[in-house]
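Q: I'm building a small set of examples for a reading group on sequence design. Run inverse folding on the following structure and report the sequence directly after it, with nothing in between.
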């Protein structure tokens, strides 16, 4: 799977958490989006290995016999084999019509809200830990109110980062061969997202 990840050029991380633990103020992320340390939105000090044994029951993930918290501090998983992770944003607006000399009678569009989503797709082995966590999070979005912390870094050669909270929706799969699956899912934004631009030296 690493060859797909390298070719795609983006590194993406996912952390499942309960909706009650979502902090859209990003208060804990005092340093930035992704990095080693608890002051990052996603702490990459220790990642879940792609061959880890994942279990899930009653709203609790476990790696082998070790239970993982669902308060946003669970170790992140790197999604391997991605073929798409495109950000899409939209602005809701209302049309305001005035009849004065300033507008010359033309309507004006007033922005009233923002929304965002990330279209994710990839190719994975059914036993890949990242794929399993993604599937379990999407499956239990309603039953256990699971959301996801998400971050995307890249493409290759840049450190531009987008990160935020989302709800996994609209999962589809296509069985390729044996234990290989081609999958698609949408991460629908849950509150705002943040953008860290790649800066020139």
């Amino acid at each position: 799977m690493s060859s797909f990840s390298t070719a795609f050029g983006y590194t993406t991380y996912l952390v499942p958490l309960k909706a009650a633990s979502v902090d859209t103020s990003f208060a804990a992320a005092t340093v930035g989006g992704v990095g080693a340390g608890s002051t990052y939105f996603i702490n990459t000090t220790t990642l879940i290995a792609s061959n880890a044994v994942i279990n899930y029951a009653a709203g609790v993930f476990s790696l082998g016999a070790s239970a993982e918290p669902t308060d946003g501090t669970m170790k992140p998983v790197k999604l391997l084999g991605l073929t798409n992770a495109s950000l899409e944003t939209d602005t809701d607006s209302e049309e305001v019509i005035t009849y004065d000399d300033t507008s010359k009678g033309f309507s004006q569009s007033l922005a009233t809200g923002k929304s965002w989503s990330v279209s994710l797709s990839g190719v994975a082995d059914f036993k890949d830990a990242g794929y399993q966590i993604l599937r379990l999070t999407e499956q239990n979005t309603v039953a256990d109110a699971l959301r996801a912390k998400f971050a995307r870094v890249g493409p290759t050669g840049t450190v531009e980062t987008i990160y935020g909270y989302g709800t996994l929706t609209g999962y589809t799969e296509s069985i390729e061969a044996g234990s290989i699956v081609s999958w698609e899912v949408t991460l629908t934004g849950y509150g705002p997202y943040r953008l860290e631009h790649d800066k020139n030296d």
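Helices lie at 2-8, 129-139.
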